[in-house]
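dude i think i finally got it to work??
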Amino acid sequence: MTFVAPAAVSAVRARSTAPSFSVLIAAYQVADCIGEAVESALAQTTPPQEVIICDDGSTDELGRALAPFEDRIVLIRQENRGEAAAKNVAARAARGEFVVILDADDVYMPDRLEALGQLAVERPDLDILTTDAYLESQGRIVRNVYTSSWPFVTAHQRREILERNFVFGLAAVRRETLLRAGGFDESIKRTTDWDCWIRLILDGSSVGAVLEPLARYRVRETSLSSDRALMIEGSIQTLRKACEHPQILLEERIMAERSIFDLEQRLSLVRLRDMLSESRRGTRRRAAAIALARSASVSTRLKAGAAAIVPALAGRYLKSRQGRGWVGAGGTSVDRV
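look at this
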């Protein structure tokens, strides 16, 4: 196993035993797929202390899907309040030293918890642990999460987390640290994991990873601008919130503001592309406004200017450049490479 993590700030002595892990699954309308996820958690070479499922107000046959596991899981039910709320309820009920996220449509490889435990033994100073994983679309493995174009970073994690979410979402988090930070923000719908990692890292936590693909992360392929717009809006919301964090440094806030600026440029083009593709009224006026905005980048202004002059041609060009991407559980998006 290959372990990577930031350099320890002081001498670290390895633990004598691995920590305990509680697996958390937020479940909403997932009766068709949750069984495989639960089975993968229960079949670990190092068994979890518990598998906690929070049913977030499902109206499907979730109870029937979980019946084969009823004596091996903890099931909590609540009214529909969203994924972040379900994770928080499960985390508060957990007894393990670490809570480990498992999305209901994903699966762990059999030795995932064992590998996370080995990393925790070697680096007991880490509060967040993750692994590489296979991205799977329509039953086909597309690539690993971590690649040369999307690496896990060990240096300058405070700065890097404000530029992109480099923490693969099926992460293990020290339970006390998570709860002390207030858990997952229930007001953020699409990027709640990223918001949580930002807050923890700015509070002083470090992240380590096992660079082996130890999960299968199912994603759906999409080219819909509505999906991308919602993800970008969530990212902007998350970064604006990060700028108000009491521990953020001036240079880090500047980086976050730069990231917000870049995201706002992308969002304006995504919305313009949507207007062009649907031939909406007011498209030329909207394109001209973007082209004349001094706050926009040169590239954004040129594309918008072309759309204002020849909208049909610009629409075809932007559509051809849009490509496709993957959007996964919890709103995780990964651009195609």
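The longest strand covers residues 207-222.
im so relieved honestly
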